[in-house]
Design a protein that fits this description.
The chain is mainly α. The chain has six helices and three strands; from the N terminus they run H-H-H-E-H-H-E-E-H. Helix 3 packs across helix 4.
Amino acid sequence: METNINEEELHGARVKAALSAMPSDGEIEEMGARFKTLSEPSRLKILLALSAGELCVEHITEAVGGNQSAVSHQLKTLKDNKIVKCRREGKKILYSVSDAHVMIMIAVAKEHLNCNE
């Protein structure tokens, strides 16, 4: 009988730990939105291009092999989701990654491509 009590206590402790680690529903929704934003291949390519540093739309377009209109649209989505930021330098608008954590997630995803586990 004591084994069942210990198992129940262990189960209860694990549930309590899971609940305490659980973000709020709003935070989970925001996390999901960010993952959804990152899951689109052209946006991912843009972020990989920006990992080298600030770029204008023209140079991003050249780096990712897209067209300027599509790149601008994807940059707006990334900006709206607070993943990239921009600043004006003369006539050009330069884009950069605003959330270094996103680049860590991308690096982990790239590393995972070669994982055989």
